[in-house]
Amino acid sequence: MSESLGARLRKARLDRGLTLEDVAQSTCIRPDKLAALEADDYSSFPSMAYCRGFLSMYGAHLGVDVSQEARSMEGHNALHSKDYQYIKNAHIPPLSEDSVAARERSPSIVPLLVFGGILLLAATGLWVLMKWRQLGLG
């Protein structure tokens, strides 16, 4: 009987003297996902596309040909969003007052008041300047 893909990956890793953490550091694949690939357990992946991608990266890193197994996963998606553990266990926090979108807030009157104050100061300054010149002081 032929060796499973996971067993071949594990053997190749051990032959190189690497730990799962070593490979995780090199490939940026979490150690638990590497362990799942070595155990031929694809149920912890959100979809077969992720599994194929991680499998291809892991195989390339170890020099193990995984192309046949990766091709057999194409178009196959045994997991559905209702089965995906991250979605099932996700905590959705309530929206805070600060997270309300700007379009849902009423417009602020402060910029209008500031602009009006600047216009009032400019008009007052112009009026004082004109009176100053009329009196011949300037």
Keywords for this structure?
0% strand; 2 domains; mainly alpha; 138 residues; 434 Repressor (Amino-terminal Domain)
Explain this structure.
By secondary structure, the protein is an all-alpha fold. It folds into two domains: about 5-90, lambda repressor-like DNA-binding domains (434 Repressor (Amino-terminal Domain), Orthogonal Bundle), CATH 1.10.260; about 110-138. About 55% of the residues lie in helices and about 0% in strands. The chain is built from seven helices and no strands. It has helices at about 5-15, 20-25, 30-40, 50-60, 65-75, 85-90, 110-135. The radius of gyration is 33 Å and the shape is rod-shaped. The protein starts with a helix and ends with a helix.
